Give the backbone structure.
Amino acid sequence: MKKNFLLLVILIIFLLSWISFYMILNYMDPFINTKLAVFFLFIIFFSMLSSFISILIYFIKKIHFRWDVTITNLINSFRQASFITLFIIWIIIFDIFKAPMFLSTILLFILFLFLELFISSLQS
């Protein structure tokens, strides 16, 4: 798979997520089935934010490596963006359930950091 094709797929996911987010906010009645609406909003928020952050990380890596990037950089940026998005979503969930934010956030950050380091060490 070529890197431009994969970048196009990520961009399409981002655009479709925005369209789905708009449609759910405007056409789905959250009072009929609240759990389903919140579930769909979190799924769409995850795909939208992870695809946007992966494109952003990819272009930062592209500038950092002086326009010489490979497809593994794009895959790694998507993985890192997924971890960042999961971190943001868990912070929102902690805030919804009134969990102790400071300690939970630090422990979650350490968990995702070690998970990212573990996966990156397996690839190299």
Observations:
- Helices lie at 3-27, 34-64, 71-96, 101-123.
